TrEMBL record:
Listed name of the protein: Clp protease N-terminal domain-containing protein
GO MF annotation list: peptidase activity
Species in which this protein is naturally found: Streptomyces cremeus
Highest rank taxon of the organism: Bacteria
Keyword Repeat (UniProt): yes
Region ranges (Disordered): 100-119
InterPro entries: Clp_N_dom_sf, Clp_R_N
Length: 195
């Protein structure tokens, strides 16, 4: 499938790996794909983010994503549903962090130190590799469906962005909260009728 990616889409994917490394996360997630798209300086995703005012709110988006990581990746919809059952997720997270330390529920959380073995060059390369989470892989698959649905032969960063907006979870929730839901993005990138 990667052969169908445009150069800008490939840069987005490799940029997502760099984002995971920067944040010291063990895996590449949908969040990293979004942050990589926010770093683009050209193309349809850049245009959409600029037109929707999302580029100016990157810090707010990163804070929303960090808050979700702190909750163990739970979306606000999930926490609201649990609140309806009388479960206060924020109180639970605070208690867990009080006991085990801040950020313990998020990716890259400290783990028990395993016995250290000497690092060979091959072992170091394997340890430094950041695999994609199932959710991030689904975004890549969904981007192909979006491209094919639009009649496009290749997958561009705009298809990755649209795929992020339709996958349920924290990233699509954050995009919607900041005015960049699927309909908004499609409208500014392709016109009001979706073409």
């Amino acid at each position: 499938m990667f052969e169908r990616f445009t150069e800008s889409a490939r840069r987005t994917v490799t940029g997502a790996v760099a984002q995971a490394e920067r944040l010291d996360h063990p895996q590449v997630t949908e969040e990293h794909l979004l942050l990589s798209l926010l770093d683009t300086a050209e193309g349809r995703a850049y245009f959409a983010f600029t037109a929707l005012g999302v580029r100016d709110r990157r810090t707010d988006i990163e804070a929303a994503l960090a808050a979700a990581r702190r909750r163990g990746g739970m979306s606000k919809a999930d926490t609201d549903a649990l609140a309806g059952l009388g479960i206060d997720v924020d109180a639970i997270v605070a208690k867990v962090e009080e006991t085990h330390g801040p950020g313990v529920l998020g990716p890259g959380a400290p783990e028990a130190e395993p016995a250290r073995r000497p690092r060979t060059r091959r072992r170091r390369a394997l340890l430094d590799h950041r695999p994609f989470t199932p959710g991030a892989k689904k975004v890549l698959e969904q981007s192909l469906r979006v491209a094919l649905g639009r009649g496009d032969k290749y997958i561009g960063e705009e298809h990755l962005l649209l795929a992020l907006t339709v996958r349920p979870g924290v990233v699509s929730e954050a995009l919607t909260d900041f005015g960049a839901g699927y309909g908004d993005v499609e409208r500014v990138m392709f016109g009001s009728d979706g073409e």
